[in-house]
Amino acid sequence: MRCTALLFACAATAVEADHRFADRDLQAGAALYAENCASCHGADLEGQSDWRSPGTDGILPAPPHDVTGHTWHHDTDLLVDYTLKGGAAALAARGVTDFRSGMPAFETVLSEDEVLDILAFIRAAWPDEAREIQRQRSHGGN
């Protein structure tokens, strides 16, 4: 993964922004991301092409997890739920029923701690401003 070295270089500042990420294992997060996420979201967090346009099934392609995507717009609890429960279940639990998600559930594959390691790895790619916005949303529950 080309972005791995860069992400480890900025790891200290990336994880300090939110206490939930203070003790995360970025190396484990990178390996778990490569094994479970990269096939859809890209080896370099780039997402699938044309990710903002739904396919014929009405489902959007996998978005990027770098700053060009919208992952950093969501609070940590939603991101964890989205990963563990799958997109449809996580959104339905929040009253969103008019959005079709292609995100499968990983609750039988990953633990919450592993998801947080993956998220720490992803967050390490974001600029400070995006990490701060995401941290504030996590604390405010948006």
From TrEMBL:
Q: Tell me where the signal peptide lies.
A: none
Domain Cytochrome c: from-to ranges: 24-126
Pfam families noted in UniProt: Cytochrome_CBB3 (PF13442)
Record Gene3D superfamilies: Cytochrome c-like domain
Name its species.
Roseivivax lentus
Q: Which domain of life is it from?
A: Bacteria
Protein name listed in UniProt: Cytochrome C oxidase, cbb3-type, subunit III
Task: Write the record's keywords in alphabetical order, separated by commas.
Answer: Electron transport, Heme, Iron, Metal-binding, Respiratory chain, Transport
The answer, when asked if Heme is one of the entry's keywords, is: yes
GO MF, one example: heme binding
Cofactor requirement:
heme c
The UniProt transmembrane annotation reads: none
